[in-house]
């Protein structure tokens, strides 16, 4: 299997709304493997680094205030196609446009409170994992389920 890793974060709204287990369960049941997890309150400067690609957008300041407003659950998930499929799982940026069945479609209503972040490609996945985690915080292990998930 061609394993890849993606960065997934439950934003402060998802944490406050008690959706941590719901979100983790969806990735876990799918067959993706959790290789890093922690809960942190990012500083505003850290949020600005995380969202640096969006610094010219009018919502950038509010977005960074929001991400740094409370605890975030930061995770790295591993699996075949996890970057692209993770995005599909999460749904469209604006929950009004997210399909039912997706995380945002099922659990969120407005774009400014869309509960979850997921890396949008291999390069951003690498950058975001490096920003949020030290190498020693990533745990490589074999899951006994893998032979049943991948054959
Ligand atoms: P995504 O989180 O789906 O990767 P993005 O990278 O374009 O979306 O934007 C990052 C976050 O910024 C997004 O999750 C919510 C917020 N955002 C995006 N577009 C917005 C808008 N038009 N108004 C307010 N917030 C917005
Ligand atoms: Mg994005």
Automatic annotation (TrEMBL):
<feature type="binding site">
    <location>
        <position position="59"/>
    </location>
    <ligand>
        <name>ATP</name>
    </ligand>
</feature>
<feature type="domain" description="Nucleoside diphosphate kinase-like">
    <location>
        <begin position="3"/>
        <end position="140"/>
    </location>
</feature>
<comment type="similarity">
    <text>Belongs to the NDK family.</text>
</comment>
<feature type="binding site">
    <location>
        <position position="87"/>
    </location>
    <ligand>
        <name>ATP</name>
    </ligand>
</feature>
<feature type="binding site">
    <location>
        <position position="93"/>
    </location>
    <ligand>
        <name>ATP</name>
    </ligand>
</feature>
<protein>
    <recommendedName>
        <fullName>nucleoside-diphosphate kinase</fullName>
    </recommendedName>
</protein>
<comment type="function">
    <text>Major role in the synthesis of nucleoside triphosphates other than ATP. The ATP gamma phosphate is transferred to the NDP beta phosphate via a ping-pong mechanism, using a phosphorylated active-site intermediate. Shows the highest specificity towards GDP.</text>
</comment>
<feature type="binding site">
    <location>
        <position position="114"/>
    </location>
    <ligand>
        <name>ATP</name>
    </ligand>
</feature>
<feature type="active site" description="Pros-phosphohistidine intermediate">
    <location>
        <position position="117"/>
    </location>
</feature>
<feature type="binding site">
    <location>
        <position position="11"/>
    </location>
    <ligand>
        <name>ATP</name>
    </ligand>
</feature>
<feature type="binding site">
    <location>
        <position position="104"/>
    </location>
    <ligand>
        <name>ATP</name>
    </ligand>
</feature>
<comment type="subunit">
    <text>Homohexamer.</text>
</comment>
């Amino acid at each position: 299997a061609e394993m890849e890793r993606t960065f997934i974060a439950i934003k402060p709204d998802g944490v406050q709304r008690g959706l941590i287990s719901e979100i983790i369960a969806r990735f876990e049941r799918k067959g993706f493997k959790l290789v890093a997890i922690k809960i942190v309150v990012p500083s505003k400067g850290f949020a600005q680094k995380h969202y640096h690609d969006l610094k010219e957008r009018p919502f950038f300041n509010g977005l960074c205030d929001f991400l740094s407003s409370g605890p975030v659950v930061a995770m790295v998930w591993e699996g075949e196609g996890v970057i692209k499929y993770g995005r599909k799982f999460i749904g469209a940026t604006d929950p009004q446009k997210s399909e039912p069945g997706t995380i945002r479609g099922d659990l969120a209503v407005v774009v400014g409170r869309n509960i979850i972040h997921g890396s949008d490609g291999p390069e951003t996945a690498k950058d975001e994992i490096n920003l949020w985690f030290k190498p020693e915080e990533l745990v490589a292990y074999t899951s006994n389920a893998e032979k049943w998930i991948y054959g």
